[in-house]
Amino acid sequence: MAVTTSTAASSLLATKKNLSSLSLTSANKLPAFSPLVTSSRRQRFIVLSASLNSKPTVLVAEKLGEAGINLLKDFANVDCSYNLSPDELCTKISLCDAIIVRSGTKVSREVFESSGGRLKVVGRAGVGIDNVDLAAATEHGCLVVNAPTANTVAAAEHGIALMAAMARNVAQADASVKAGKWERNKYVGVSLVGKTLAVMGFGKVGSEVARRAKGLGMHVIAHDPYAPADRARAIGVELVSFDEAIATADFISLHMPLTPATAKILNDETFAKMKKGVRIVNVARGGVIDEDALVRALDAGIVAQAALDVFTVEPPPQDSKLVQHERVTVTPHLGASTKEAQEGVAIEIAEAVVGALKGELASTSVNAPMVPAEVLTELKPYVELAEKLGRLAVQLVSGGSGVKDVKVTYASARAPDDLDTRVLRAMITKGLIEPISSVFVNLVNADFSAKQRGLRISEERILGDGSPESPLHFIQVQIANVESKFASAISENGEIKVEGRVKDGIPHLTKVGSFEVDVSLEGSIILCRQVDQPGMIGKVGSVLGVENVNVSFMSVGRIAPRKQAVMAIGVDEQPSKETLKKIGDIPAIEEFVFLKL
Q: In 271-426, where do the E strands start and end?
């Protein structure tokens, strides 16, 4: 019977035995917090290392709003020490149970090692956690929490402000007047009303930008593979594909996280697909734009103007061609810099840190929950399989409809009560969300992260072959109501379907759509639909060999001899676009897709 996930994050902490625990945030399962039994019926995980009768100490290493400081003082001793050098921080941290930072203080491995095990909570006052060593935090049993919601309105308002200022040449005209000039004809702008705005990333900030742009009379479209279509329609926004968004927009506003999938997503190739005279706003992350390519696009007239609050390197070099460009408006990462946002962040992070010090794990946790060691030991290869199936499935999705309905099927010879799938569901959710999101998904925040994105995950357990000694026969992931960039991944039920199992401790992909395959889930995978005929393996292998791409595994599944077949190829390196094109140009190849694990 299928069960839709709705378990609260806190309920995932309960266990039936007093066991040591492990982290899920890395391939090497590392020690996290130890459980403390507080009654015969219930366990609670305590993160304080100091005596329960004494106040913990919280180090505030960067300026925090007064409301947040007052919240902390009600519960803890608060040490506000700003502008500490790395050595000073390492010296002071051994006296602290928690630390709160913004983006300017690096909480490195050395900081965790210097704490001597006392540091139990790191609070990041903001969204990004690039300055916190998550792996080291997990190893040292330290919970990391952030404040992801308080900046939303401030960032959206700054995006709209930059767009309007850019369209009307406000910064350039201001500098001209202050230089003693009066150049009215030079700074004729463009109107926003009636123009098409493409919002790239329809999360909290993106949707707020869309609402405000609609109020300015703009036609708003958006691209986000996770945005529910009904939520977009409710505010008059049409979800479209990435290529359609950039090709039709007069203005493009970026609100996507910086991930391997989005790094330099605006580059020479994507600029070439844009409408001539497009205008670009970025208040998200600097690295999503290839800055050299943007300069070329500005000089070529493809991009008329750009307004940027973020840069690949901050602060950018003084001689940056992009910053100095006449048609570029820049601000020094001011997206969250309003009095109201700063106060909101202070309260949000203070509440999260105090909750963590009390032994509670909030939905803003970004690293390790507690999981019984014996459960992880048994499920370890299946945990890896689950995440990789999620990653494969979401990469097969195309179009602008958004991922909303996912069904996970577990085949097991065990009784339902003897198979704990919470870890597996969390890792499938991790695989579905992380490739195109800045969210760090784990056992604590998996259900919360899915719910936030309108992602409904149902689970079904069926009786599988084999011995109950093995926890699972196979795991199957299906995504409904979406289009696929690889048509053969669509099952007879019209859903994207991938299935896998563990063989000799290694995860394998065993089914794509209706096609049986068998390929080790290591490295990356190329899927090709072909006409089943002699020599196809050799032809594809030769193309990869000439380009020095090592093949680790190859499998062919077919409907019948001389009919359609699907070839699954495991590769150690990522093939170039030219190599993939050569594979696609082989006459018998009908479609192909490259999937990165």
A: 278-282, 303-308, 328-330, 371-372, 397-398, 405-412
CA dist list (Å): 514 to 406, 510, 517, 597 = 17, 10, 10, 21
CA neighbours closer than 13 Å in the CB half-sphere of residue 50: 19
Q: What is the predicted pLDDT for the residue at 561?
A: 73
Exposed/middle/buried for 470, CB within 10 Å: 0-12, 13-18, 19+?
middle
**Residues pairing with 410 in the sheet:** 461, 475
Q: Does 226 or 475 have the greater pLDDT score?
A: 475
Least confident window among 13-27, 90-104, 373-387, 560-574: 13-27
Instruction: Render pLDDT for 36-88 as a digit per residue (tens, 0 to 9).
Output: 222 333 233 334 334 445 899 999 999 999 999 999 999 999 999 999 999 99
Q: Give CA–CA dist 320/305, Å, rounded.
A: 16
Please give the pLDDT value at position 373.
Answer: 56
Of 252, 262, 146, the closest CA to residue 198 belongs to: 252
Closest Cα to residue 96, out of 85, 81, 86, 74?
Answer: 81
Cα-based distances in Å from 158 to 162, 254, 468: 6, 12, 57
> pTM to 2 decimals?
0.68
Between strands 35-37 and 43-45, the pairing is antiparallel
What are the backbone angles phi and psi of residue 57, rounded to the nearest 5°?
Answer: -110, 130
Question: What are φ and ψ of residue 243, in 5° steps?
Answer: -65, -40
Please give the pLDDT value at position 143. 87
Q: How far apart are CA 275 and CA 272, in angstroms?
A: 8
Would you please indicate which residues are annotated as catalytic (active-site) residues? 285, 314, 333
Q: In what order do the strands lie in the sheet with 251-254?
A: 238-239, 219-223, 196-200, 251-254, 278-282, 303-308, 328-330
Task: DSSP letter for 486, please.
Answer: S
Look at residue 496 and tell me whether its pLDDT is greater than 60.
Answer: yes
Most confident among 34-43, 75-84, 390-399, 532-541 (mean pLDDT): 75-84
pLDDT of residue 48: 39
Q: How far apart are CA 594 and CA 580, in angstroms?
A: 8
Instruction: Give which of 152, 486, 516, 172 is closest to 338, Cα–Cα.
Output: 152
Residue 217 Ramachandran class (φ > 0 left, ψ -120 to 50 alpha, else beta): left
Strand order in the sheet with 98-101: 77-80, 57-60, 98-101, 121-124, 143-146
Computed from CA positions of residues 312, 232, 343, 355, in that sequence, does the dihedral angle turn out positive or negative? negative
Residue 432, C-beta contacts closer than 8 angstroms, at least 6 positions apart: 390, 391, 393, 394, 403, 406, 450, 455
Cα-Cα-Cα-Cα dihedral sign, residues 158, 161, 166, 171? negative
